[in-house]
Every structure is written in C-alpha cells, then in structure tokens.
Design a protein that fits this description.
By secondary structure, this protein is α/β, with parallel strands linked by helices. The protein has two domains: 3-138, Tetrapyrrole methylase, N-terminal domain (Cobalt-precorrin-4 Transmethylase, domain 1); 141-246, Methyltransferase, Cobalt-precorrin-4 Transmethylase, Domain 2 (2-Layer Sandwich), CATH 3.30.950.10. It has seven helices and ten strands. The protein has a five-stranded parallel sheet with strand order 3-2-4-1-5, sandwiched between helices. Strands 6-7-10-8-9 form a five-stranded mixed sheet, with helices on both faces. Helix 2 links the parallel strand 2 (30-35) and strand 3. The chain starts with a strand and ends in a 6-residue tail after the last strand. Keywords: Cobalamin biosynthesis, Methyltransferase, S-adenosyl-L-methionine, Transferase. Residues 4-220 form the Tetrapyrrole methylase domain.
C-alpha cells in the first residue's frame, strides 16, 4: 500500500459523492469496503451502490472485510477506543494484503473524514505509513442544516460542535447560542433545562429512511426520544445528529 485515499461519501445519498471522489475511486487499484455486521448492512450496501454507479475502471478491485467491534464493556473509554483503532488498522492491513500488488488503496468514509471520524487516526497506525490523501465529503452537519433549511450560525455568531458525552457532563457549551451535537446515543438533550431552547434533529440523513423533527425542546424532545427508539428497533441501528439553539437570539 503505497498510497491510501480516504474518500468522503456523505451521509447516505449516493449523489453526495463529489466528482473528485468519483475520480479517486476510478484511480484506485483496490477499494476496501468494511462490513459492520448484519444489523448495519445498509452501510455496506450504500458503498456497493456508489461503486456500482461510478466505478468504470475494470482494473480496480473491491475487497470487503469485517470491521472489528469496539469493546463497549471496557470502563476506560479512551483505552477501549485506542485498542479498537489498533484492531481496525490491522484489519485494513490484512484486507489490503489480499491484493499485494495494489499500490493505490481507497476507503469510502461515511460523511467527511475530518469530522468525528477516526479514519485519519487509524491510517496513522499503518506500518509502513502510506502516502495519505483525503477527499472531503458532505458532513452530517451540512446535511442536517440543508434538510431543515436553516443556517448553521446566527449572523456573525459562533457555534460549537460537541458530543453527547460532553453535553451530558458539561451542559450547554458556554459562550455561544448554537450547539451541534454528534455521537449521542443517549438523547442527552433530555437532561438539559428546556426553557429557551429549540432543537432541529435528523436521523439517517440523506437516506430513503431519513427522519426529521424540530421545535421547542420541551415539546419536540419527547417526540424525538420516541421516534429514535422506534427507528432503532426497526432498523437495528441509528445515526443521528441535532442542533440546539437558544431561541432568545434571532434564528434567521
């Protein structure tokens, strides 16, 4: 593996793939497609759909591999993530070794490789280190704001991007009126005092199964909790994101 290209593919709509991403796919000798188990088969299917639509280079090979699972029972969250990333890097190396003559390898990365995705950190674990290239993709933040037709920030105002864990532990971030929350499997917004907060929520953004909800947190929060639980039962997995804004400030 001389070169490794991480290609952002957006949040579930094959049209999210950029022209640069399509060129990178056809310029690769080998494309690695991770499988995350039967309950997340939709994610591998989307990658297959993208490849079926844009891959025209007959010399490009596609290899699928099983992605290691994180040990969620480890009480040390960061140590567990480090071990998991080591295991994923090993899985990448083994999958790439199945085509030893492939010098230019590519991975299709959900969303954008730069935002709350570990592909860049995992790539840094590869030995020997390949030459790395990143093709940016549409982020879940951009997809959420587009789906709701809202601006990300107020005029000249800052915003914070954080995680559900940080929201639970630290509350609404100080110093701003807009907060985007990712990686929240515990609907942490339900622990905030709802007064003066509006929420815009989306799940399966860009996919046919996309779900949207918004409104004052006091009213919309319970609806989101119920919709999220039902969708997770129905699909076996869920990826969602939301934006919180203090409504004491002008939204438009």
């Amino acid at each position: 593996m001389r070169d490794l290209t991480l290609i952002g593919i957006g949040t579930g709509n094959p049209d999210h793939l950029t022209l640069a991403g399509a060129r990178a796919i056809n310029g690769a000798d080998l494309i690695l497609v991770p499988r995350k188990g039967a309950d997340k088969a939709d994610l591998a299917d989307l990658r297959r759909q993208i490849l079926a639509g844009v891959l025209t280079n007959p010399a490009t090979r596609v290899v699928e591999f099983d992605l290691p699972r994180r040990d969620t029972a480890n009480p040390d969250y960061h140590a567990g993530v480090v071990d998991w990333h080591d295991a994923i890097a090993g899985a990448w190396a083994v999958a790439a070794a199945s085509a030893p003559d492939a010098e230019r390898v590519a991975l299709l990365v959900w969303g954008d490789p730069s935002l709350y995705d570990s592909s860049l950190r995992i790539a840094a674990r590869l030995v020997p280190a390949p030459r790395l290239r990143v093709i940016p993709g549409i982020t879940a933040i951009a997809a959420l704001c587009a789906a709701h037709a809202i601006p990300l920030n107020d005029v000249g105002a800052p915003f914070v991007v954080t995680t559900g864990r940080c929201l639970r532990e630290r509350g609404f971030p100080p110093g701003c009126d807009t907060c985007v929350v990712m990686l929240d499997g515990e609907t942490s917004f339900a622990r905030l005092p709802p007064q003066g907060l509006t929420i815009w929520w989306g799940a399966y953004l860009g996919m046919d199964t996309q779900i949207l909800e918004h409104g004052p947190l006091a009213q919309a929060g319970p609806r989101i909790v119920a919709a999220r639980a039902a969708a997770r039962r129905r699909h076996g997995w869920i990826m969602d994101i939301y934006l919180l804004r203090r409504t004491s400030q002008r939204v438009a």
